[in-house]
Amino acid sequence: MSRFLFRCLLAAVTATGTLTAISSPALAHGGPTAAIVDTARGHGNVFSLTFDDGPNPPDTLALLKVLRKHHVKAVFCLVGDQVKAHPEVVRRIAAEGHTLCNHSLHHDDLSALTPAQIRADLAETSKLIHQAVPWAHIAYFRAPYGAWGQSPQVAADLGMQPLGWRFDIEDWVPPGTDVLAQRIRDRITPGAVALMHDGGGDRSQTVAAVDQIIPELRAQGWRFTLPQRRG
Ligand SMILES: [Zn+2]
Predict the structure, then answer these.
(1) Any idea which GO molecular function terms this record carries (predicted)?
(2) Of 93, 132, 168, 215, which shows the fewest CB atoms inside 10 Å?
């Protein structure tokens, strides 16, 4: 065990001991803040993959297979309506060790809503996720269209860290697998959180581009990590 890892473990034990007295689950997890995180964990050539608008079989299932093959963990930002339609896919995502993110109930623009309205939307979405996977921890919230409004503070109050992104591969209208792979090569920067989609349409090109790019980037020294836990 490296000295660094030992210090981390020691810090975790100490933190757990200290935090048991605090009742808030949010604080016990280090406390989400209203700051929008768009940075991958770790130093150097680290990079986070995040996938929005699912679950969306068969593309989500194909993506899970690709991520498993390459031993990469990602974040899935789930839409409540999709969770309701495909709870078994949410179970698969969680069972394979990926991280869950609340992406609102109907993929509405939340920017004009009051905090109470936003809270109702987010809470209902999390309830649907928990109906699918009772043990799931929903670490993040991402606002549809990046239209945050007052949602970052509401999300933090509900124990979820707002999750942004540094670049979008713009896979809304699929331009071809090679174009998507090239966008990732062109836009990747150290510490970037990347926004991609496994839902909202046919995402087979996104899945194929991810399959192509992971070994290539890894060979260049890139590491795939999750986004930072808090802002
Ligand atoms: Zn979305």
Answers:
(1) hydrolase activity, acting on carbon-nitrogen (but not peptide) bonds; metal ion binding
(2) 215
- From the number of C-beta atoms within 10 Å of its C-beta (0-12, 13-18, 19+), residue 170 rates as middle
Q: Any long-range contacts for 110-113 (C-beta under 8 Å, 24+ apart)?
A: 110/143, 110/144, 110/147, 110/148, 110/149, 110/151, 111/143, 111/147, 111/148, 111/149, 111/151, 112/149, 113/149, 113/150, 113/151
Q: Is position 197 annotated as part of the catalytic site?
A: yes
User: How much is the CA Rg of the chain, to the nearest whole Å?
Assistant: 17
- Top CATH class of 37-224 equals alpha beta
Which is the catalytic residue, given 53, 197, 198, 211? 197
Per residue in 127-145, pLDDT tens? Answer: 999 999 999 999 999 999 9
Domain extents in the chain: 37-224
CA–CA gap between residue 141 and residue 144 (Å, rounded): 10
Residue 85 has φ and ψ, to the nearest 5°, of -75, -30
Q: Per the structure block, which two tokens stand in for 111?
A: 């920017």
- Find the 122 Cα to ligand 1 centroid distance in Å: 14
Q: Strand 75-78 to strand 46-54: parallel, antiparallel, or no bridges (unpaired)?
A: parallel
